[in-house]
Amino acid sequence: IIPPQDWLDRGDESAPIRTPAMIGCSFVVDREYFGDIGLLDPGMEVYGGENVELGMRETEGFQQNKVNYKQNTRGRKTRQRVKRSRSEAHRAHEPQGHVRPAAALPATGVWQCGGSMEVLPCSRVAHIERTRKPYNNDIDYYAKRNALRAAEVWMDDFKSHVYMAWNIPMTNPGVDFGDVSERLALRQRLKCRSFKWYLENVYPEMRIYNNTLTYGEVRNSKASGYCLDQGAEDGDRAILYPCHGMSSQLVRYSADGLLQLGPLGSTAFLPDSKCLVDDGRGRMPTLKKCEDVARPTQRLWDFTQSGPIVSRATGRCLEVEMSKDANFGLRLVVQRCSGQKWMIRNWIKHARH
């Protein structure tokens, strides 16, 4: 997470940094207070998610407590560097968290809203990492499971962002994140504010994708085993590639008509997924940063499930052409529409026509 601009403008590297989340393995907390706000979610398993869940819960939920997490940005960088070495156990400087209630808890345990979380650059705590983790082979599954669990409890309509980021459907995602009824009851009991409030007041830097109609893998009727793919990260050509469901094959179609390929840009400071463009000058569609497209209509498309993908600028269709010179014998082109159909995996809402 990049520090907010007001901290950068201060020019004081030792000043506290307001942060929407933290590292979950290193913080100190008042036991009574921590119990009253629900501890860590006992339904999370193995690895990941607790840092984000606690961050959202703290900042959404508790007005009569002032909470301060002391962490260290330098420690965070050290940990990321150390984690890449698998040969031995390591000791590293890590962010330390400290939670301190600023007022007595009311007997009912009900909070109105608003703790706070800060990174304190000069704090230190040691973290010893095991050489071998028995759960390493399944770590992505547990990170995904716990992320979905946190999203279902705390993110309201914005939970679609987590499903999109993992490129999985919102209905029948194939991941059992467990029963969240007790955590939803906790949220109601603490009178937590909405995730929209969290974005407006705590994490305004987060990129919002609420205009998404549909997302996921996109397949053509002529080559159903191949998916639309962003290709090389530094390239400007979309390709067809055997379907694997990872972020390079995450396609988003928005209510504005944008067709974007690649992983989501989590904040406005990071690159966003690129727009598919038909500039009318050739037969090959290109990928460009959406804001760099000379004529906005060149980045707009009409698309319905099991129908064509049609450029609003040229009226041409995105289609698949057989070619011996192309990878897997398949090439993406824009040409006069021949009736090819495209299917996308996941719908959030259907466009009105």
UniProtKB/TrEMBL annotation:
Gene3D superfamilies reported for this sequence: 2.80.10.50, Spore Coat Polysaccharide Biosynthesis Protein SpsA, Chain A
Ranges where the Ricin B lectin domain occurs: 215-345
Compositional bias segments (type: Basic and acidic residues): 85-97
A Gene Ontology molecular function term of the record: carbohydrate binding
Segments for region (Disordered): 71-101
Source organism, top-level taxon: Eukaryota
SUPFAM superfamilies: Nucleotide-diphospho-sugar transferases, Ricin B-like lectins
GO BP annotations, alphabetical order: protein O-linked glycosylation
GO CC annotations, alphabetized: Golgi apparatus
Keyword Transport: no
Skewed-composition ranges (Basic residues): 73-84
This protein's UniProt keywords: Disulfide bond, Lectin
The protein's name in its UniProt record: GALNT9 isoform 2
Phylogenetic classification of the source organism: Eukaryota, Metazoa, Chordata, Craniata, Vertebrata
